[in-house]
Amino acid sequence: xxxxxxxxxxxLGLGCLVVITLSMTLGAxxxxxxxxxxxxxxLFVICLVAHAVGVSTVLFQTLSGNRILxxxxxxxxxxxxxxxxxxxxxLGSFQVTSLPGWAIFVLQVAAMGSFAALLYRRLFTGxxxxxxxxxxxxxxxxxxxxxxxxxxxxxxxxxxFLVLQGRLFxxxxxxxxxxxxxxxxxxxxxxxxxxxxxxxFDVIGLGRERAINLGLDYRREMTFxxxxxxxxxxxxxxxxxxVTFFGLLVAHLAYRLLPTHRHAVVLPAVxxxxxxxxxxxxxxxxxxxxxxxxxxxxxxxxxxxxxxxLLLRGAAR
Amino acid sequence: xxxxxALTKRYGQTTVVDAVSLDFPPGGLSAIIGPNGxxxxxxxxxxxxxxxxxxxxxxxDGRALADWPNADLACRLAILRQDNHLAMRLSVRDLVSFGxxxxxxxxxxxxxxxxxxxxxxxxxxxxxxxxxxDELSGGQRQRAFIAMVLAQDTDYILLDEPLNNLDLxxxxxxxxxxxxxxxxxxxxVLVVLHDINFAAAWSDRIIAMKNGRLLHAGPPAEIMxxxxxxxxxxxxxxxxxxxxxxxxxxxxxxxxxx
Lengths: 317, 258
What we know:
The complex is a heterodimer of chains A (317) and B (258). Chain A is an all-alpha fold and 317 residues long. Chain A contains 13 helices and no strands. Chain A has helices at 3-25, 32-64, 76-93, 101-125, 131-155, 158-167, 180-196, 198-204, 208-213, 218-240, 246-257, 263-287, 295-316. In chain A, helix 2 packs antiparallel against helix 10. The longest helix of chain A is centred in the N-terminal third of the chain and has 33 residues, at 32-64. Chain B is of the alpha/beta class and 258 residues long. Chain B has two domains: 2-76 and 156-257, P-loop containing nucleotide triphosphate hydrolases (Rossmann fold, 3-Layer(aba) Sandwich), CATH 3.40.50.300; 85-153, no CATH class. Chain B has helices at 40-47, 70-76, 92-98, 101-104, 110-122, 138-152, 168-185, 196-202, 220-223, 226-233, 254-257, and strands at residues 2-11, 14-24, 29-33, 55-60, 63-64, 77-80, 156-160, 188-192, 205-210, 213-218, 239-242, 245-248. In chain B, helix 3 (92-98) runs parallel beside helix 6. Chain B is globular, with a radius of gyration of 19 Å. The interface between A and B is medium-sized, with 21 and 29 residues. Chain A: Its main location: membrane.
């Protein structure tokens, strides 16, 4: 790792610390024993989600060999929505409601990981595909999964549907607290798996043929990588619902700040940038607009514009 | 030693490589020639396990490619395709460092550093080692990719049309460097070439393909005959002897070829 990379990462880490401290203490009124735990929970959710979204986006862009597509654009979030609804329906109708919350969560994450790997492996291990073809496939898959989810939702009992609906909209204030511990566990396990594979992801970034030439078991690594992305996406989607363009925003900030192919540098950077961006966004939303708008709306707006810009620039080249 | 037995590749109804059986003994420089669509690149890709065969098999040292662990194979055999596009921005040194991956798995050791420096020096890239690939000319980029293959330090080096996009001087330099690899370092070099005269002047053996089939294989003197070349390319051309080297004058207008 070069000196300038180290310095940038250190600066990002310090920035993160400052933002976290400020968001814990700024404008706190009343008893600390209430404020700190309350804020800490929210902060924890934001950090988990930011890390999962940032890392999964960069990994996905490495595996798919381009810097425009994200898991959300390719329908990962919609796939999770569908699986979640299907599981909900299945468990509800079999009256297995006695199943503890963490078991349902683990089931969702496992289903998502394996489905993502199976479905998307074919798409990315095949011979060279055009970007436009990929986006088209992503839109079609996304619409398909969303429609299936809608259909399944209409089969659910209205009372149960209300419970489900509460989980499907991005909001960092009402994240499911029972899922928090297990989410943290899942995230740290998948992050460890990513860390162990950092050099392999560097090699995958060279493209299929060069990766095989360098002795990588390309098919296996792609399958595993896609499964990891599926797991990361499902954790963030389960905690706060789909956030489509946030990953694209922070990934490009990281590429711009640290122009290197090394995942050992880019991944920590994107994670810290994502945490800072979400915390600052949340702060501005609460203090400046006093909850007047949903954070996801602001992110979608900015991220959507970046997506269009990248697409047009890519097409022009 | 690489051997193929009845190696076949089909895309739907079309057979692109048709029952090719060949031996590549260690050492020397072999050139694969043939018209467009003859199956040269497909054959090379199957030799390097980039493509799965639909029939027959490839053996390296008597063991089928599928039975080799990927990592071991990457220390014995390297391939370079003609596509030089990269999704990310890399410096020449970063690219060449990737060549050491099969040996060091991403942890560059001092011994790796020596190999990388040697590969950079061999391809005359030291002055531009820290430049980014997208800032370089086509010829410099081509040399950087060859340096990566050199750093991989394999016995077999397979190159798909390495002279593409190179001007006359750089094409000449490339062939000289490949020849040196075979002569001085004992590498087995296998190249797909379009220009029969480059193949005739620099290689020990020419393998001619047409419509997926192996047509001829032998030393340049055997292949560089008007009737053989006409069979390969469907183009009649005089072959002149320039000193020790035969040259096919395919570029002459039809009237001058008579």
